[in-house]
Amino acid sequence: MSPATHLPETGEQMPNFFYFAANSTIHAFENAARFSDLSIEQNEARFIETFTKEYPWIEDIGIELFGGAVALFATLRGQKRKRALPMLSGGVNRIAGILVAIASRKNSVVLIDELENGIFHAHHIAIWRQLLAFMRSNTSQLFVTTHSLEFIKALMVAAGKNTDDIALWRARRGEKGKQHYVQQYVGKDLVAGVRMESDVRG
Amino acid sequence: MSGDEGWKSPFVYSRLIICEGPDDCAFFNRFITVRGLLRCHVRHTGMGRHSAGGNTQFHEALRTARMNTEFSKIKRILLVSDNDNNPEKSFKNIQKQITAADFGTPPTADLARGAGNPWIMIMMIPLGGAIGTLESFCLQAARNKHIPTHNKIEHFATDVGAHNWDDIRSNKMKLRTSLAVRCERDPFISLQNVFGDPRYRASDLIPLMDNSFSPLEMALREFAR
Is A29 on the interface with B (CB under 8 A)? Predict the structure, then answer.
């Protein structure tokens, strides 16, 4: 079983809670352990199918021993040797880590700080499509922070008309800097704001 | 006036007017200035989408307004739409969009205020429930100021067989002709430029101080109160 998120302040172990920081690499062992959870349940096929569809130069994903530790390895089209996912691309490894985490647990809560970090712009819409599909099929809840209007626009394209389960929370500091405000907008507001070129980030 | 900045800039004033397109937007911005009315934001349903707008996108404009970081400053919203050929149907169309945008109960009559905060008022143009559009409204003022020209335009319409057109198209044709013959610099001038371009304002092509616009001033004063 993959490691649970440990909250040091409260001592809680939260097996269905995932947090991905903006600038930290997802540990190779965590990814491998979550993939292993999927594999044991024989549920890894969907993850691999989704992932290789977006990155067609990757043929397959599996677990291999690497320097004494397990890690996710990619089988690349036209290449004889498999490559460790973290060695391929930081963005690809990050997305693989996020998707495999979501796929590994139903009814989870997933927090991702600055999801767009390291992701090539051409993949934005597809990444959102995959995330939405994975979250919906696993009845999980995703919280994503972003500074990128481009990434929000990609979400709206990926969601299409199906925005009832999407909301924007916009956080800002009060004038004196001591108070903070969070305003919530439903998906339809977000769609309208994006269409009319309002800066929905605030 | 703070009407040409699109939807991005934060609201400053407490009043927001949303109209159908850039022509209406330029008209209201200029009218408010000329008549010395309370400053307010004037935006249109095509703004930001690089489209001419129209009367079917008020719900999106309302939702976009709500997303403005300073939306709490807005106390009153005025939606301005054309009566077109069926004033009742056009009015109901706006009512439905207020509901669709989750802005609560819409006002039940033209120029009546709705419930809620901010409250919403619908203004159908021309005022008084007549069939027509902004052009019909402007034609009356242009006609009052340039009677001989407009008498000739009426004859011209008859001579070329355009006198049997429906009222909306006929009024558009007459206003277009009036502007063309009185604006040598740009006979194809748009209403947006008539009101928005300083080079044409002095020509008073459509006199905004004309008495035919007085009911509009009264309605806007009520809105601003």
Answer: no
Inside any domain, residue B27: yes
Tell me whether residue B35 is exposed, middle or buried, using C-beta atoms within 10 angstroms of its C-beta: 0 to 12, 13 to 18, 19 or more: middle
Measured between CB atoms, does A192 come within 8 Å of chain B? yes
Query: What digits encode the pLDDT tens for the residues A41-90?
Result: 888 998 899 889 888 999 999 999 988 889 999 999 999 999 999 888 88
B147-165 CB burial, b ≥16 within 10 A, e <16: eeebeebeeebeeeeeeee
ipTM of the complex: 0.85
Residue B173, chain A, CB below 8 Å: the answer is no
Q: Range of B194's domain?
A: 134-210
Question: Do residues B119 and B218 both lie within one domain?
Answer: yes
Q: What is the pTM of this model?
A: 0.87
Residue among A172, A186, A198 whose CB faces B64 most closely: A198
Are B27 and B93 in a shared domain? yes
